[in-house]
């Protein structure tokens, strides 16, 4: 895999956008009222074979912002205890500052113009990222404000499935239900699936071009 700076730029593959895979765990479904509790992202790189691969995973446990709503049903699903000291949570402002700084660095390294969020039900994740950016008054949010790349759509097209676990199983990747709804596990599965879709398309595209020639 490529070193930190010696990389094959992704700029030409996605029209100047850099795909950054993101998953959030939250205190509900309303990105304006409910807490952002965990944020994970995967940085992708092109390997020596010219294929897109997971390069590095980052993860933040985040303190609920003041007066944030915490829906007990959501906490039951994700298993997060928001005020447990064992979480080693950081303030939302610190998490978003670090998150955006890493993304901006990757955008520059890959000679891209902007990041585009990749997720499973990606508008949900983007909504929480954008709301958090607004709360902390971030001036340098590197993500496209509304466009996303969604593995729900890609999974439906390729496998006729829309649930993350079922798409992963259809792709032969397996699924550990005991780890599901952990931001890190979900984001890495989403990243592997996105890379699988891109690499499969590249292979098919090359085969079509070979036949045409």
Q: Could you give a short description of this structure?
A:
By secondary structure, the chain is an alpha/beta fold.
CATH architecture of the domain at 17-150: 2-Layer Sandwich
Count of strand segments: 5
CATH topology of the domain at 17-150: Nucleotidyltransferase, domain 5
Helix/strand class: alpha/beta
**Would you tell me the overall average pLDDT?**
94
CATH class of the domain at 17-150: Alpha Beta
**Shape, principal axes of CA atoms:** globular
Question: What percent of residues are in strands?
Answer: 15-25%
Characterize the biggest β-sheet: 5 strands, mixed
Low-confidence runs of at least 5 consecutive residues: none
Name of the CATH homologous superfamily of the domain at 17-150: Ribonuclease H-like superfamily/Ribonuclease H
Task: Please tell me about this protein's structure.
- The chain is an alpha/beta fold and 213 residues long.
- It has a domain at 17-150: Ribonuclease H-like superfamily/Ribonuclease H (Nucleotidyltransferase, domain 5), CATH 3.30.420.10.
- It is 40% helix and 21% strand.
- It is built from 6 helices and 5 strands; from the N terminus they run βββααβαβααα.
- The protein has helices spanning 72-78, 92-109, 122-135, 151-159, 164-170, 183-212, and strands at residues 17-26, 36-46, 52-61, 114-119, 143-150.
- The radius of gyration is 18 Å and the shape is globular.
- The two termini are 32 Å apart.
What secondary-structure arrangement, pairings included, does this model have?
Blueprint: E1 17-26, E2 36-46, E3 52-61, H1 72-78, H2 92-109, E4 114-119, H3 122-135, E5 143-150, H4 151-159, H5 164-170, H6 183-212
Parallel strand pairs: 1-4, 4-5
Antiparallel strand pairs: 1-2, 2-3
Helix pairs in contact: 4-6
């Amino acid at each position: 895999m490529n070193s930190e700076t010696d990389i094959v730029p992704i700029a030409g593959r996605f029209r100047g956008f850099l795909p950054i895979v993101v998953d959030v765990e939250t205190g509900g479904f309303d990105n304006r009222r409910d807490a952002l509790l965990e944020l994970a992202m995967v940085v992708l790189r092109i390997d020596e074979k010219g294929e897109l691969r997971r390069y590095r995973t980052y993860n933040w446990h985040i303190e609920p912002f003041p007066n944030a709503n915490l829906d007990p049903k959501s906490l039951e699903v994700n298993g997060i205890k928001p005020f447990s000291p064992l979480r080693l949570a950081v303030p939302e402002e610190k998490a978003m500052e670090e998150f955006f700084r890493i993304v901006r660095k990757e955008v520059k390294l890959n000679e891209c113009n902007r990041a585009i969020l990749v997720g499973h039900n990606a508008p949900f994740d983007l909504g929480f990222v954008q709301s958090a950016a607004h709360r902390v008054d971030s001036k340098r949010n590197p993500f496209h404000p509304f466009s996303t790349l969604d593995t729900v759509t890609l999974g439906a097209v390729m496998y006729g499935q829309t649930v993350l676990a079922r798409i992963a199983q259809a792709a032969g990747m397996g699924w550990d239900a005991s780890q599901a709804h952990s931001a890190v596990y979900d984001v890495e599965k989403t990243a592997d699936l996105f890379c699988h879709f891109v690499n499969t398309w590249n292979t098919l595209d090359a085969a079509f071009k070979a036949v045409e020639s």
